[in-house]
Amino acid sequence: FFQAQGVQTAGGIAWAGPGGHGQFRSLCYTDPATRAERLLCQNRYLADLDRETALLYYRAFASSGPRSRARLRETRGRFIDRLERCEGVDCVEDAYDDRISEIGRVWSRR
Question: How many CB atoms lie within 10 A of CB 9?
Answer without folding.
Answer: 21
